[in-house]
């Protein structure tokens, strides 16, 4: 993609720091507002401050070090990111998703939404602990970069888009958790990121039964003009959120984004990436109101 030239004073900025000769690559981070393929001074300072702020691992993330929570790739479907048995999934999906028409082409996750990983997400979402989100986003960015590389796609040609929250919810919680994840994922992967979606207010997904969640978010998302905010089309657009349970929110967000991409003549695929996917066995047991 075409990139604008940056001021000369910014060219020596490298984060994370690397030793001379290590061939480190400067991460690409777009401004917090409308997307841009070129990082600005403020965006770089924000990213630098967040990574420096992490310092020591937050408590919930620290507990992950003592348990096995990362997925074995062969036990996760690359299309729906659901749990599968050995040899059950291939490039076309798994028995649970092969016959379904999904709103995304590939799905990336860190692990099942349970135990310590669930605690990390809740800590980020409801205690406004940004360092937790920075670390989770970094890991998610590394997973996204690895999947892109497997497909022969350069990570710096990707665009990461967070699933937006409503303004009211953002003010009540004091944090836009998906944006924190997306910014950190972009920093770790070398991709750009930007807010290409808006969301209208409505009932929280956790307050409605699983069977009504897709209807609850129907029309909730709207795509900004992709060409106006990000210029040339990326190789792939990755939609990032914290958790996927029924998939209703991610489906609605991806559909809205694809609609905006068609209007801008973008022909690139849309991927999904989340920190955790609720195990199928837990979805039926999770009542409305349970996060």
Name the features:
single chain, 291 residues, alpha/beta, 7 strands, globular, disordered N terminus
Mean pLDDT: 79
Radius of gyration: 18 Å
Largest sheet: 5 strands, parallel
Q: What share of the residues does DSSP label as strand, in percent?
A: 5-15%
Could you list the spans in which at least 5 consecutive residues all have pLDDT below 50? 1-39
Please list the strands of the largest sheet in the order they lie side by side.
1-7-6-2-3
Number of helical segments? Answer: 10
By secondary-structure content and strand pairing, the structural class works out as alpha/beta
Shape: globular
The sequence of SSEs as H and E is HHEHHEHHEEHEHEHEH
Helical amount among residues, as a percent range?
25-40%
How many individual domains? 1
Structure summary, number of beta strands:
7
C-alpha end-to-end distance: 39 Å
Model description:
With 291 residues, the protein is an alpha/beta fold. The chain has one domain (27-282). Helices cover 35% and strands 13% of the residues. It is built from ten helices and seven strands. It has helices at 41-54, 59-64, 115-127, 130-150, 167-173, 177-189, 213-216, 226-230, 248-263, 280-283; strands at 106-112, 158-162, 192-193, 197-199, 221-223, 236-244, 270-277. The strands form two sheets. Strands 1-7-6-2-3 form a five-stranded parallel sheet, sandwiched between helices. β6 (236-244), α9 (248-263) and β7 (270-277) form a beta-alpha-beta unit. The longest helix has 21 residues, at 130-150. The chain starts with 40 loop residues before the first helix and ends in an 8-residue tail after the last helix. 45% of the residues are buried. The model is unreliable at 1-39 (pLDDT under 50).
């Amino acid at each position: 993609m075409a990139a604008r030239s940056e001021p000369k004073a910014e060219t020596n900025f490298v984060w994370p720091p690397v030793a001379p000769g290590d061939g480190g690559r400067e991460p690409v981070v777009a401004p917090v507002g409308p997307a841009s393929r070129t990082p600005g001074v403020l965006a770089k300072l924000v990213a630098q401050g967040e990574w420096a702020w992490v310092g020591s691992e937050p408590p919930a993330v620290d507990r992950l070090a003592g348990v096995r929570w990362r997925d074995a790739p062969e036990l996760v479907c690359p299309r729906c990111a659901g749990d599968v048995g050995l040899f059950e999934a291939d490039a076309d999906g798994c028995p649970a998703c092969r016959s379904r028409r999904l709103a995304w082409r590939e799905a990336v996750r860190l692990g099942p939404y349970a135990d310590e990983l669930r605690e990390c997400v809740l800590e980020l979402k409801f205690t406004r602990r940004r360092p937790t989100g920075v670390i989770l986003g970094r890991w998610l960015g590394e997973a996204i970069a690895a999947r892109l590389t497997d497909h022969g796609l350069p990570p710096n040609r990707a665009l990461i888009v967070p699933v937006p929250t409503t303004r009211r919810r953002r003010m009540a919680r004091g944090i836009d958790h998906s944006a924190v994840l997306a910014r950190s994922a972009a920093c770790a992967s070398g991709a750009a990121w930007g807010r290409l979606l808006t969301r209208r207010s409505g009932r929280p997904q956790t307050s409605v039964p699983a069977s009504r969640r897709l209807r609850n978010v129907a029309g909730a998302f709207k795509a900004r003009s992709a060409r106006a905010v990000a210029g040339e089309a990326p190789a792939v657009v990755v939609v990032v959120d914290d958790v996927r349970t029924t998939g209703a929110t991610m489906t609605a967000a991806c559909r809205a984004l694809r609609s905006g991409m068609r209007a801008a003549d973008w022909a690139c695929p849309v991927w999904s990436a989340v920190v955790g996917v609720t195990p199928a066995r837990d979805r039926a047991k999770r009542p409305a109101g349970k996060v």
